[in-house]
Known about the structure:
- By secondary structure, the protein is of the alpha/beta class.
- The protein has two domains: about 10-325, TIM Barrel, CATH 3.20.20.150; about 325-385, no CATH class.
- It is built from 16 helices and ten strands.
- It has an eight-stranded parallel β-sheet with strand order 8-6-4-3-2-1-10-9. A two-stranded antiparallel sheet has the order 5-7.
- Helix 10 links the parallel strand 9 and strand 10 (about 285-290).
- Helix 9 (about 230-240) runs parallel beside helix 10 (about 265-280).
- The model has no long low-confidence stretch (mean pLDDT about 100).
- Bound molecules: 5-thio-alpha-D-glucopyranose (GLT) and manganese (II) ion (MN) (2 copies).
- The site of 5-thio-alpha-D-glucopyranose (GLT) has 10 residues, from strand 4.
Amino acid sequence: MKDAYSPKPEHKFTFGLWTVGNSGRDPFGDVTRKGYAPIEAVRMLSKLGAYGVNFHDNDLVPIDATVAQRNKIVKEFKKALNDCGMCVPMATTNLFYDPVFKDGAFTSNDARVRAYAIQKTMNAIDLGVELGATVYVFWGGREGAEVDFGKNPQEAIKWFREAMNFLCAYVKDQKYDLKFALEAKPNEPRGDIYFPTTGAYLGFITTLDYPGMVGVNPEVAHEQMAALNFPHAVAQALEAGKLFHIDLNDQKYSRFDQDLRFGSEMVKAAFFLVKLLEDSGYAGSRHFDAHAYRTEDRNGVKDFAAGCMRTYLILKDKVQKWNADAEIQGLVKEIIVEDPKLQALSKKYSRANAQALKKAKLDRKQLVKHPLRYEKLDQLTMEVLLGVR
Ligand code: GLT
Ligand code: MN
Ligand code: MN
């Protein structure tokens, strides 16, 4: 069905090869379907209107492939991308699946494993760049601990910094056009993962050798697992000029990482997220890091992928309605109180401003009388979302 909510490449929707490649295996049960192989995924997603695909090195090239095998796979994959008019905006390294990473990659207690992680990532960066990626994601799934007495968390942070500095310098030395995006998660698969939130990474980035090259890749489910407000994390990243990429999906609060279809659970939060992205002029990919329910067959995977994009576009349409709604905008105007004189005084410190501000007449009993009609605003927002406005 083609309608106003049909995705097109210009909407910049992307999926990880691992998302539609997911075969339904979970920690308690085996595969329930055949996941889409890389070239199948490219063909299927391009028919649905996606813009591109992203991958881990080993989603495309098996970890033990020879150079000749690697080159053959890359050649065939490039051809499929070309034939379908699809691109690869982002790439990443699998630093969590192979048993060698059982105690972390860049933060492993074993210096040899740390070196291997950097070596593997340099090769994966070369692969990503060869296929056109300009954003490189780091998700530290195994970078953490169960036993805090066994690994010094301050050392771990230093090791992680050394790895980032090394790899930034590598990218510069190769003259690649590539930025890094760090993805936080509080736990799973480790008992605790270092840098549990997007805010933690935003603080860490300022300590790097090349902070301008490094931003964040927040994921809906990961902040919501920690019962945090995801749009607020995104807002902080946007405000810092650090939203280099985003992982869209959904989740019920405080559970394991569910990676559900975008907008399938917390519709109001998803609406506000789309509003934030669209109003801010965020120009990056709208990347889905989610997978179909384990109950689905291969057709269900298509329903899942189409549903992610369609819901995004429906919410985008609702944002336009909300922004154009005179009553809603009237309420927003009423809620925000401007006072140019006071704003000028409090914007920047000077001795004169401080003295004038100390003398300003600010009667708290009067101030509290200003009504804030959030009840009405929220109800009208719900009515937009529920389709009666
Ligand atoms: C893995 C994880 C995701 C990360 C991917 C990138 S891999 O599926 O659950 O959140 O974004 O490494
Ligand atoms: Mn993710
Ligand atoms: Mn996730």
